[in-house]
From TrEMBL, chains A, B, C, D:
SUPFAM superfamilies: Hypothetical protein TM1070
Entry-linked InterPro entries: ASRT (IPR009794), TM1070-like_sf (IPR036698)
Protein name: Sensory rhodopsin transducer
Pfam families (UniProt xref): ASRT
Length: 124, 124, 124, 124
């Protein structure tokens, strides 16, 4: 089962909404499943429109566990600071194959909206 | 037509919202199409952030039928209990090729939101 | 450019909501792009949970055109009658490669929700 | 890293909603990540139901940058005019591999809705 997934995933549309309404905070999560029997060590590269990429390092997803990493919490994405209200893209690299999905909750305007995509798998 | 789809599918972002408003209940569904001429016998593995995986067994999707399995109903997912309000991921394994999509309805904050992804196909 | 896309696409999660609020009607669309220089002739197979599949035939997507086919309008899906409020799945088959995306607008509970997936490509 | 992504991407379901409510304008964005070390030069072909395709040319996504291109702003999509309220599809072609995601925000009916798909990759 160790070869399920890919080592590199890319998600082009990242954007943490600035505003929230109601009790649910606008946020995004990079959802990783590690179905293998080995822990996965993950690094993240955040790309922007007008500045150099920013790296987050040393995120661990244990064997047979999932982690849903909030991009607005630097401690969950290896120390990277991702500003709100700014378009970004993200590349996820793992030392063992994983599967990556990216989801957004936007409560910026009464009620809430969700969107989600599986990343684009690159290296198998 | 028996080779359309894949035997293993992975969806990293599972989360059954705790709250519902209005007449529609927050829920998720694992939607399976079996386009083949043979019944499909399906097992599900649910992965969590901080506990061992949970298995559901013996779900049948008949030949040339679809089933939309509610993850909050153990009787629809082979007996697995998936708690609300907890991040999870799911791996679907079938004995014949199928196609898997995962959708969420969230009515946790006035109005409703939907999200949906096709799973990541692993073994063909 | 005639090989861009696939001849068979599958979408497991179909569901035309029964209720609508406001001015926008709940609906789904099967969005097809034919980027080739030849007209595409398309047939659709709708699968259900508890009845035989239903076929729609003879839908044409002209060369270098897109069509967004409403599943609640039999005249747009080759004569197939897809009931509201019933889970279904759909398989799209074309005589030339096309690209297929499936989207839902749900206005069943104040405000509106959208979801969309690219189909699962089968034969290239 | 120059081979991550694809040179051609297709998104069948484009539609810029005509109405907006609240402070957020209904819009779509073609989100491109160029993870390579070379600038990407991009052309876009917009397909319609009842008219000839329209081209946009000369969009640049610099090396290691993302751009989220609003389809309602001709200056962001190489000069192409995409009307609101009309179904379209889009094909993105790049001279270096990129990754393409397409997202819609619809605020046409109180509250907001989001949908997003990764494009269908064609040439690697």
């Amino acid at each position: 089962m160790s070869s399920e997934g890919a080592r590199v995933w890319i998600v082009p549309d990242g954007f943490i909404p600035e505003r929230s309404t109601g009790g649910l905070e606008s946020h995004e999560a990079i959802c990783v499943l590690n179905p293998s029997r080995s822990d996965a060590r993950i690094s993240l590269t955040f790309y922007f429109e007008d500045r150099e990429p920013v790296r987050g390092e040393g995120v661990v997803v244990p064997a047979e566990r999932t982690r849903h990493l909030r991009t607005d919490r630097p401690e969950e994405v290896g120390g990277a600071e991702v500003p709100r209200g700014v378009p970004y893209a993200v590349r996820v690299e793992s030392d063992v194959p994983v599967v990556v999905q990216h989801s957004r909750m936007d409560t910026g305007q009464e009620a809430l909206a969700l969107m989600s995509v599986l990343g684009h798998p690159v290296e198998r």
